[in-house]
Amino acid sequence: MDADLLTIDAGTALAVAVAAGVRLFQYRNKSGSRKEVYNVSHELADMVKRSGGVFIVNDHADIAKAVDADGVHLGQDDLPIAYGRKIMGQNKLIGISTHSVEQAREAETAGADYIGFGPLFPTTTKETGPHQGVERLRLLRNAVMLPVLAIGGITPNNLAEAMQAGADGVAVISAVLSAPDPGAVARDLIKRINTFGSTSNR
Ligand code: TZP
Ligand code: MG
Q1: 172 pocket-lining for ligand 1 (C-beta < 6 Å)
Q2: pTM check: above 0.90
Q3: 60-63 contact pairs (CB < 8 A, 24+)
Q4: Average pLDDT for residues 111-124, to the nearest whole number?
Q5: Centroid of ligand 2 to alpha carbon of 112 (angstroms)
Q6: CATH architecture of the domain formed by 10-193
């Protein structure tokens, strides 16, 4: 869930996603104050807990820990994994954004719980370099044991390409949040994901 793409409040958007069957949430807020990130994360963490889902805070390990989130998601320019682990403890999830096989291997060695890989397809949600494409996803999938979540430009129409290249799941922002009916798109994505068995090499 990206704060800058929300047209309704985060709690309402989350309730729509929960009703649609989404079980894994990440709160991403690049523009708000840390106080705002904390307050919204607190609210969302409680809601996700009640729904039985998994809640991850982007960027801020201290906030993730403070609201008892299930984990934190760190980028290549965020805290090193070892320090994130110190804050989060052994029982929480640490996800790492990666953009190459080398970064994915490094994250695995350092003790990440899952890897994000992207941008898989072109996206305007984040300023990135060129998109990675499915062939690079396939290489990365075969280089690590960790679950790999593909991100970037994923829609119901291209989701199959990501899954066929070996993604264990996908992270989607704009295709859901910018849709006239976010719940319908989320349901469509889930229905399509469920047609794929686990492709992980774990
Ligand atoms: N990291 C790589 S692409 C991206 C992030 C956070 C944004 C993806 O958003 P969208 O809107 O699903 O293309
Ligand atoms: Mg980050």
Answers
A1: yes
A2: yes
A3: 60/34, 61/87, 61/88, 62/87, 63/34, 63/37, 63/38
A4: 97
A5: 14
A6: Alpha-Beta Barrel (3.20)
